[in-house]
Amino acid sequence: MLSTVTERIVVRxxxxxxxxxxxxxxxxxxxFAFRPFASTAAALISIxxxxxxxxxxxxxxxxxxxxxxxxxxxxxHRTLLDKMTLLDLPNEVYNWIVDYFSGHMHCTKYGGxxxxxxxxxxxxxxxxxxxxxxxxxxxxxxxxxxxxxANLMVK
Length: 155
Prior knowledge:
Blueprint: H1 2-20, H2 40-55, H3 77-84, H4 91-100, E1 105-106, E2 109-110, E3 113-114, E4 118-119, H5 132-141
Antiparallel strand pairs: 1-4, 2-3
């Protein structure tokens, strides 16, 4: 319980404020999930506005929707932490986040045989009980950009 409370404090007092003025290398303008004052409804309104505006000058608009939820199972902690260094966070908070993602182990048991313990160095916790996990998605998703600047992305 204390860990969840601490996570929420870190997110509310440090990560969310850092999201409000991100560095240029982390584009969060198209990110709606897990941000204060953003929502799925706001994302849908943004998409509807973009499509409506584009239809004024185009015969058709193609909308492609992709589900990237499983991609967060493969996010390397080191990559995530490198992106977090770009945020305006106090050293103590960054060090706490490093510690949060460190020291987790797992093993597999199958057919009565248990594997050796191995370090978990990838994945981000997504469930609603996690405070830091969902906020980490914001930083991770910032790297997803369109190849063509004429295309729009809503995350």
